[in-house]
Write a structure and sequence with these properties.
Layout: E1 19-20, H1 22-36, H2 46-49, E2 73-78, H3 83-86, H4 94-102, E3 106-109, H5 118-130, E4 137-142, H6 145-156, E5 166-170, H7 179-182, H8 185-193, H9 205-208, H10 212-221, E6 229-235, H11 248-255, E7 276-281, H12 298-306, H13 315-330
Parallel strand pairs: 1-7, 2-3, 2-4, 4-5, 5-6, 6-7
């Protein structure tokens, strides 16, 4: 089913090439939730996981195999902007990946630079893929800027397409963020020049690669390889009660452009070319994939109490549903 007009999409993305997969994805989430959602941290009802975006298509009604093993599946998380810098507190989807491993999947986190540009990270992702053992099915899950880095890798290193079966972006920075133009010069200087022990400086290349101009220029010549199935799971809080205090100002700034945003990205800018749209999570950008609230360190406790106070989210169920959706479509 084609994507309805009530779901905003950046003009750089061909709406006619997108499809609406919300109905079946909701069915999969609901089935997993009913079977073992309450046994996992930060449980939510299925309705509370999603932000409503108008009428959804009917799901297929096919029974979901909620206990099927994921042996032979390789899931690679691709971290986003600055993730390397804070990985001592929280890293990309570590809670969800651990859950997948208990189900038999092999998982890893690609070693992306937190402040590097897309070209640097494209090379790193290529190298990581090249070092992976062959699997029956390989799924990349790029979060935030990781989506831009992944697309750049496909463009620069087309030989990598044969090693990937599907890409499921999570709050992907596909078309850039208006926040790039709103950020004050002092903040850009911090990103460009401030020494951080856990992540190298790249003279602002990471931030520059998030500009809408840069990303839309890239998309003009990019075409998703036909052998890779693409999906996008986005986020946009239903109201500001779901937004962490530390992102409230950026959420309000983006809301002047569109209320459908996650505090870092507009919903319209999160959709991959040629993707099946899986829905919008009712959480902020960081809560979708960065489990600060699962860390027991004192600094993380302070961060989740004062800055990322809406970080709790059922990431295990969501990531499992993403993988099961892809496998259902492809096997």
């Amino acid at each position: 089913m084609s994507l309805p007009d009530c779901i905003p999409v950046n003009a750089a993305i061909d709406r006619a090439a997108l499809s609406d997969g919300r109905g079946r994805f909701r069915e999969i989430i609901a089935a997993l939730n009913a079977d073992h959602g309450e046994d996992l941290p930060d449980a939510r009802s299925t309705d509370d996981i999603f932000t409503p975006l108008g009428a959804e298509p009917q799901g297929s009604g096919v029974v979901v195999d909620v206990s099927g093993r994921l042996d032979g599946v390789n899931v690679i998380a691709v971290p986003g902007f600055l993730t390397e810098c804070v990985s001592f507190m929280a890293d990309c989807l570590t809670d969800g990946l651990a859950h997948l491993e208990r189900l038999g999947a092999r998982t890893s986190i690609a070693p992306m630079t937190g402040r590097g540009g897309c070209a640097e990270n494209a090379r790193r992702l290529r190298d990581h893929l090249s070092g992976e053992k062959k699997a029956n099915f390989t799924i990349l899950v790029p979060m935030s800027k990781g989506a831009a880095d992944t697309l750049e890798m496909l463009a620069l290193y087309p030989e990598t397409t044969d090693r990937i079966d599907a890409i499921v972006s999570l709050v992907g920075c596909v078309c850039g963020s208006p926040l790039h133009g709103m950020a004050p010069d002092w903040l850009k200087w911090i990103e460009r020049a401030l020494p951080v022990p856990t992540c190298a400086r790249f003279d602002g290349a990471g931030g520059d690669s998030l500009s809408p101009r840069t990303r839309t220029a890239f998309l003009k010549t990019f075409k998703m390889p036909s052998n890779i199935r693409a999906y996008s799971l986005c986020a946009a809080v239903e109201d500001d009660a779901g937004m962490s205090l530390g992102m409230m100002s950026s959420y309000r700034a983006l809301s002047r452009v569109s209320p459908l945003n996650d505090g870092q990205m507009l919903l319209a800018d999160q959709v991959l070319p040629g993707a099946t749209f899986l829905g919008a999570l009712n959480c902020d950008h960081i809560a979708s994939g960065m489990p600060f609230n699962r860390s027991r360190g004192m600094l993380a406790h302070f961060v989740t109490g004062r800055i990322l106070n809406r970080n709790a989210f059922p990431r295990e169920i969501v990531l499992e549903a993403m993988v099961r959706q892809v496998l259902e479509d492809g096997i």
